[in-house]
Amino acid sequence: MFDNLSDKLDKAFHILKGHGKITEVNVADTLKEVRRALLDADVNFKIAKDFTARVKDKAIGQDVLTTLQPGQLLVKLVKDELTELMGGDVAGVNLSGNPTVILMSGLQGSGKTTFSGKLANYLKTKKNKKPLLVACDIYRPAAINQLHVVGDQIGVEVYSEPENKNPVEIAQNAIKHAKSNGFNVVIVDTAGRLAVDQEMMDEIARVHKAIQPQETLFVVDSMTGQDAVNTAKAFNDILNFDGVILTKLDGDTRGGAALSIKSIVNKPIKFVGTGEKMEAIDVFYPERMAERILGMGDVVSLVERAQEQFDEEEARKLQKKIAKNEFGFDDFLTQIQQVKKMGNMKDLVGMIPGASKAMKDVEIEDDAFKHIEAIIYSMTPGERSKPAIIDVKRKARIAKGSGTKIEQVNQLMKQFDQMSKMMKMMQGPGGKNLMKMMGG
Ligand code: GDP
């Protein structure tokens, strides 16, 4: 995420580190590079210029040159400005209606349908809501089907009227249906076009007027940079929407959209989409994002994700197994699956302070556990529960079955062995101290 921008900002701050003494000249040089980094990230020229001007003013105000660590202070000023640029505080969704009506808007392909599903899933699983998804795309039957597929996947009902060609009516009927069937959130997915056109704008304006949503959200593909900002402006002029959803942040986005949109439409980014799966949705925290961009990581989000996946019941069971020396490869597999649910590896590494930079040139596979899982799946149930029985002959068979090399099987066995020993140690007599040492 925003790798290029992070890289360039890091280089900009290097200008300061390279000099024994910090002068007004090299602060100016640094800020020039910061501005260049923003422009390269496809941030609008005026926004980038104002940005560095504000940092410079603050730097002068706080007398950066005479502080003990001028470099760090400058990084902090840049972080604060980046946070402001992306919206300052975190913005929630207004769920006060009964039912709450949420209207989704945006161009075709922006990720509207996918996001409607993600939001429904989020509200259902995290906020205990009973959402109804509504298909209002009357032009593309495939779009209606797509929403039904998404709905099935997350166990959320989808309301559609394939024969009806009036989106206003469909949306109104859906709200009636929601009221009489106990749904408390109605998410209306609308038709998009490839580019802004009058007909589409008129249609969404009509739907908007008729259903008076509590939340109108504008969905935009973050890969589209400056275009994203222009589209946002066009939609905002018509809908005066409440918030922005930035999708495809997992891709190779330069960051321009995330950094410019707030300044142009003055609406907060509320959520981001970070993948095609239904779980790939994150609340947008401007400060955490700024920290990530500056390579400071995002430990808070990392811990939160871990907590979300943490199941106390499972943890107790696991502890018992370890105590009885029964920890096997099936448990190992469960652990891997929990880590995987936290997100893709690249994303997770980006949340560890400094790790992005350190691992910049390391190719991180999207599915880093693919081989490990293949090896475990090639073991018999007996081998999984009693790894000690895996001899050379069995190893060869497992390697063949999983399409890996025998060295890879050996390596996994070794890692597993070390892990089991460590877990055993933590449970032993000295374990309590060890746990305490680790903050447990
Ligand atoms: P719509 O036309 O606006 O409804 O867009 P869709 O929801 O059909 O999404 C268009 C494409 O983008 C689909 O292939 C989605 O799987 C993909 N997509 C949507 N959101 C994301 C995301 O956050 N990350 C990635 N990588 N792909 C996404």
Explain what you see:
Belongs to the GTP-binding SRP family. SRP54 subfamily. It is found in: Cytoplasm. InterPro entries: AAA+_ATPase, P-loop_NTPase, Signal_recog_part_SRP54_M_sf, Signal_recog_particl_SRP54_hlx, Signal_recog_particle_SRP54_M, SRP, SRP54, SRP54_GTPase_dom. Its EC number is 3.6.5.4. Residues 268-281 form the SRP54-type proteins GTP-binding domain. This protein is of the alpha/beta class. The chain folds into three domains: 3-85, Four Helix Bundle (Hemerythrin (Met), subunit A), CATH 1.20.120.140; 100-296, Rossmann fold, CATH 3.40.50.300; 303-437, Orthogonal Bundle (434 Repressor (Amino-terminal Domain)). The protein has 21 helices and eight strands. Strands 3-2-4-1-5-6-7-8 form an eight-stranded mixed β-sheet, sandwiched between helices. Strand 5, helix 9 and strand 6 (243-247) form a beta-alpha-beta unit. Helix 2 (24-40) packs antiparallel against helix 3 and helix 7 (167-180) packs parallel to helix 8 (198-211). The chain is flat. Mean pLDDT is 85; it is low at 430-440. Residues 106, 108-114, 192, 247-248, 250-251, 273-276, 280 line the site of guanosine-5'-diphosphate.
List the helices and strands and how they pair.
Layout: H1 3-17, H2 24-40, H3 45-61, H4 70-85, E1 100-105, H5 112-126, E2 131-136, H6 141-154, E3 158-159, H7 167-180, E4 185-190, H8 198-211, E5 215-221, H9 225-239, E6 243-247, H10 256-265, E7 269-273, E8 281-283, H11 286-293, H12 299-309, H13 312-323, H14 329-341, H15 345-350, H16 355-358, H17 370-377, H18 381-385, H19 392-402, H20 406-427, H21 431-437
Parallel strand pairs: 1-4, 1-5, 2-3, 2-4, 5-6, 6-7
Antiparallel strand pairs: 7-8
The structure holds guanosine-5'-diphosphate.
